[in-house]
Specification:
Elements: H1 13-24, H2 29-49, H3 53-57, E1 92-95, H4 99-110, E2 115-118, H5 133-140, E3 146-148, E4 155-157
Parallel strand pairs: 1-2
Antiparallel strand pairs: 3-4
Length: 163
């Protein structure tokens, strides 16, 4: 993979960089995928752990002028494991309570519809918000906000910016 019998961690930094860049343009699919995965992991790690990222970008650790508000009233449904399916009567089922799902659920409920939101994430009360960047990325976004396509050809960074 490196063209040398010397382990990569024992290579000089300029040789390691050249090896890494050769994987980027490699016609060998697994090497190209390895480059993409390591590159995405490195960038993700840097954004989440860099003490200078916020200073360089001007991005605050918590939202500026954030005020806690009361949340929309709803009920959690818990189902015990059983033999057959559960039956729920509702007008609308929304999958995911993210930005789009939450707004749709609110608007439909206010219009008089019975709305069921199915969410795989955890619930965080308004008392636990705002969170700093690291906590928010880890807790509020699927896969800590970085998802790759199945073939590794694209990385999707789920970042939410507010005014």
């Amino acid at each position: 993979m490196t063209g040398s019998t010397t382990p990569i961690h024992e290579q000089p930094i300029d040789i390691r960089q050249a090896i890494f860049q050769s994987w980027r343009v490699s016609y060998i699919g697994p090497l190209n995928a390895l480059y993409k995965s390591l590159n995405a992991a490195g960038k993700n790690l840097w954004v989440k752990t860099s003490p200078t990222f916020g200073q360089v970008t001007g991005y605050p650790t918590v939202p500026v002028d954030c005020e806690r508000a009361t949340h929309y009233q709803y009920e959690f449904e818990q189902f015990e494991a059983g033999e057959g399916p559960e039956v729920i009567e509702t007008d609308v089922v929304i999958v995911g309570s993210g930005c789009g799902g939450a707004v749709c659920a609110k608007n439909l409920a206010e219009a008089g519809h019975k709305v069921l939101v199915v969410e795989k994430g955890y619930y965080y009360s308004t008392d636990s918000l705002p969170m700093n960047e690291r906590e928010g990325m880890e807790r509020l976004y699927d896969n800590a906000a970085v998802t790759m396509t199945d073939d590794g050809s694209m990385t999707v960074c789920q970042i939410c910016f507010s005014d």
